[in-house]
Design goal:
The structure is a homodimer of 298-residue chains. The first copy, chain A, contains 15 helices and two strands. With 298 residues, chain A is mostly helical. The first copy, chain A, has a single domain, classed as Farnesyl Diphosphate Synthase, CATH 1.10.600.10. Chain A has a two-stranded antiparallel ribbon with strand order 1-2. In chain A, strand 1 and strand 2 form a beta hairpin. The longest helix of chain A has 28 residues. In chain A, 53% of the residues are buried. Chains A, B: Belongs to the FPP/GGPP synthase family. Chains A, B: It catalyses: isopentenyl diphosphate + (2E)-geranyl diphosphate = (2E,6E)-farnesyl diphosphate + diphosphate. Chains A, B: It holds the Pfam family polyprenyl_synt. Chains A, B: This is Farnesyl diphosphate synthase.
């Protein structure tokens, strides 16, 4: 099997396991109030790359940790990511009708339910961490709670979304655009890797190297997103091409041009590989994921 | 000092300490993005009885625990409560313009910021628990994370709000009304007491007694709320009298009549007192709080 085919198989296998874990961790849509659980599950199982939990699990694997035991922890990253999409799509926010080619949550369930489903998905992540079998590792799980909440909350992802909205309609400065990307997507991607490292008892040097790797691919991922928004294919993106520009959002291609943006992605990817080279870990999957992220066309 | 004056002083002292703790735990509105932190703090410091953290602290006190050490934990209850008010007031939800006599969050900051401020306050609660000084008590704090998330989330408070919205405009059954109240307000009030009990290392029998107390006063509190909505004074409530009825919400007076509702409150209060009588705890404050809750006029 080629490396590419092998990675595809690896990602597909992990995605299936993550979805199985989420299915067990989120209330079934057969109990009252059904529409809340329907709405939560609609967005949770609407597809997607499952990049965040995959990063958590690949990091656990790199450290020789227990991937099966890490599955609920990995699932919490996807719950947080999904809640953020549901709320970002709301009419009062980005007002998006489609996400991954399907109607957004509020288009199906209405605004009120979408707000509540988002709230519930966010809270569910902490419910999972606070009630899962700790097996004597309560201190590690508590630290993961802190890591996840810090990345998702007022000085992390939410600050990024706030900054993104405030800068709509005006060309953001380079500094401001870096802030938006580091917080809106970077914080949770970095936490995905760091949480895997904490779960698998990485030492401080390993945590540092993995954090650096995650920050590089997090930014590269976002710049690729910006590039795809300019030149991508609507069908593959599942949303309108040029949507960011239409909303007056600042992007890397807008600020730096397409060529320089592509160059930044290449540079960041090289740096991500280098960050991992210094530590004695089985990082081949993490390296492959870095390459996959920048070469994706969707 | 009369018992009543003494309780008033006690509640005022605790409220001040809780607000001091929250002030330290929530990002200052002087850092970027300012409007997010402004909005979070606007609702967090908009007054209110601070009933939930007071219950946590009074429970810690009843068990002879360390009230000062419990302060950040108590503050997380108020953060969760505040987030729920901010989201409940949104146009897509209850569409309220005033809360405690002041414009609601979205009337000042706009819908998008109000949604994000709510998300951030919810997440902040878990950030506090996950990053506070654990002093070797990580297992207890992790259990508190689970308790808080379960009470606030998809099978707790959010389920109650969902049920409340679904039953707007139609007379709910007795069973459905009980579900709404037990989840929308009961779950977090009960968690406030249980979290105090966990923090102060209560034994299983004490936790059971305190849980029963909390469930009784939680329901009594909500029925009193319903009664005040019918006969209260708009000025004191800080919102329009009869707002529930106008929104077609089912209430205890509507379903059972005013007299029977008042009788239920009396019965529940007696039961709350009885629940505490069996355990050897300094529960005088909790007893006083129960009486204060049902005799309040606002």
């Amino acid at each position: 099997m080629s490396e590419k085919a092998d990675l595809k198989h690896y990602l597909r296998t992990l995605s299936a396991q993550i979805e199985q874990a989420m299915d067990a961790l989120v209330p079934a849509a057969t109990q009252y109030p059904e529409s809340l659980y329907d709405s939560m599950r609609y967005s949770l199982f609407a597809g997607g790359k499952r990049l965040r939990p995959v990063l958590t699990l690949a990091t656990v694997e790199a450290l020789g940790g227990d991937m099966a035991a890490a599955m609920p922890v990995a699932a919490t990253l996807e719950m947080i990511h999904t809640y953020s999409l549901v709320h970002d799509d709301l009419p009062a926010m980005d007002d998006d009708d489609f996400r991954r080619g399907k109607p957004t949550n509020h288009k199906i369930y209405g605004e009120a339910t979408a707000i509540l489903a988002g709230d519930a998905l966010l809270t569910q992540a902490f419910q999972v961490l606070g009630t899962m079998e700790a097996k004597g590792r309560e201190a590690v799980l508590l630290r993961i709670v802190g890591e996840l909440a810090t990345a998702a909350g007022s000085i992390g992802m939410v600050a990024g979304q706030m900054a993104d909205m405030e800068n709509e309609g005006s060309k953001a400065s380079e500094e401001r655009l870096a802030f938006i990307h580091a917080h809106k997507t970077g914080a949770l991607l970095t936490a995905s890797v760091r949480i895997g490292a904490l779960f698998a008892d990485a030492d401080e040097q390993q945590v540092q190297a993995l954090t650096s790797y995650a920050q590089k691919i997090g930014l590269a991922f976002q710049i690729v997103d910006d590039i795809l928004d300019v030149e991508g294919v609507a069908e593959k993106l599942g949303k309108a091409v040029g949507a960011d520009a239409a909303q007056g959002k600042s992007t890397y291609p807008l600020l730096y041009g397409l060529e320089e943006s592509r160059e930044m992605v290449r540079r960041l990817t090289t740096e991500a590989h280098q960050a991992l080279s210094g530590v004695a870990l089985r990082t081949n999957r993490l390296q492959e994921i870095a390459d996959w992220l920048i070469n994706r066309d969707v």
